[in-house]
Amino acid sequence: MAKIEPFAGVHYNLEVVEDISKVVCPPYDIIDAGGQEQFYQRHAYNIIRLILGKDFSADNDRENKYTRAGGYLEEWLRRGVLTQDNERGIYFYEQVFTHEGEKKTRLGVIALMRLDDEGQGRSVYPHEHTHTAPKEDRLKLLKSVEANLSPIFTVFSDPKAALEGIFKKQVFPQKPLFDIVDDEDIGHRLWRVTDETLIGQFKEFLGDKQLFIADGHHRHEVARMFRELKRKESPAGLKDSYNYIMTYLTPLEDEGLCILPTHRLIRNAVFAVEDLSSCFDVKEVPGAKELSAAMKERQEDVGVFGLYKDHHFYLLKLSEKRACNKMIQEGPKDYKNLDVVILHKVVFDHLCKIALEDIAYEIDLGRAVAEVDSGAYSAVFVLNPTKMEQIRSIALGGHVMPQKSTYFYPKLLSGLVINKL
Questions:
Q1: Which domain of life does this protein belong to (predicted)?
Q2: Range(s) of the domain holding residue 356
């Protein structure tokens, strides 16, 4: 099952960077061009220069955003901007935030997770489909920096709240390495623990656990690809660090594990609302607030969506399940009952003929509606959140959902700790 190891993390040196909040940023894949520029301007040592560097017109194979990231990493280490811990440890991570008016706390640990070997069984389970272009991008970056710049996000079962007990008894009494508040007013605290007894107990505790990837599917696949490249380069012996990836682990029962829906914005929509009536009951509702309330009431039902098009809101409820199942050729019942699968396989592929390149993603319904009103998009399909038990079932069954089927909130900050390979 899961094999977890401590590591000597690389992090910002508080003697050089006094305010850590100015050098961290969200994960690269939720930062747009405006956000990229904002983080570039915020601080000369912001981690954005490593995880999402700028492209320049003069770039070539020898000088580009990937080579610059590698150069920044080495320069910042040499100048003491970044420092590497002398001892191996694991990093305990607390996030405090407000969701739907309720204050919540999520607890997790950052450590190294051994990558699965082909034919040796599986300890970590993905749940989302990946795409070639993001993997090519992250592989070029990994080749240049030879480091995990941010952890992938995994969950495991901890019904007795053992991790919370460790935090209360052995972590919270210590002074954190970092204690900051980000732009979204989310509190982040990070502790480094080097006690060998505690690390041993934690490794043993996770030894029989199944891990499920929440975020980081592309980086996880890229880490395996990178290991295979290195294995071919060094047939006499692979450097052991290539067998691991920096990973955040949190209990799937944690109260702070929030899953948000990701709505689908549609470009160049040529379908009519009537096109959906062959498989769905379609009911017009007064506005976004009423749509959200109606969808929440029906979140246990199969095949419930919202639609905003031509300044009208609609509630869609699957009415022809048998016809729907015929359109979804592969997968067991649990897979075919996923709202996001029905939306992609039935609505996009068959009823409305919407191509993947005409789809964009937005978690905030208000922003999505505004994008449609501005004319940038023609319509938005609104989803309920995917449930953790659905993710677990699909992953264990060896199936994957469409990209952006889940949005785990809050995201992990990039720049708190780095794993140098």
A1: Bacteria
A2: 262-384
Asked if 90 and 6 touch (Cβ cutoff 8 Å), the reply is yes
Is the confidence at residue 54, as pLDDT, over 70? Answer: yes
The structure's pTM equals: 0.93
Same domain (yes/no): 163, 115: yes
Q: Which of 1-5, 89-93, 383-387 has the weakest average pLDDT?
A: 1-5
Q: How far apart are the first and last CA of the chain?
A: 23
Residue 392 within a domain? no
In terms of domains, do 224 and 300 share one? no
Give the total number of structural domains in the chain.
Answer: 2
Using the Cα atoms of residue 198, residue 392, residue 125 and residue 357 in order, give the sign of their dihedral: negative
Whether residue 146 is found in the same domain as residue 14: yes
Beta bridge partners of 188: 95, 180
The answer to whether residue 251 is domain-embedded is yes
Residue 143 has pLDDT above 90, yes or no: yes
Dump pLDDT digits (tens) for 294-329: 999 999 999 999 999 999 999 999 997 777 777 787
CATH number at residue 341: 3.30.1760
Cα torsion for 266, 271, 272, 276, to the nearest 10°? -90
Q: Is the same domain home to 62 and 153?
A: yes
Best CA proximity match to 312, nearest among 284, 336, 291: 284
In a shared domain, residues 103 and 213 = yes
Cα atoms in the 13 Å half-sphere on the side-chain side of 69: 25
Domain assignment present for residue 63? The answer is: yes
pLDDT for position 119:
57
Angle of helix 132-145 relative to helix 65-78, nearest 10 degrees, comes to: 30
Q: In whole angstroms, what is the distance from residue 73 CA to residue 76 CA?
A: 5
Tokens 């040196």 belong to: 13
Answer yes or no: do 225 and 270 share one domain: no
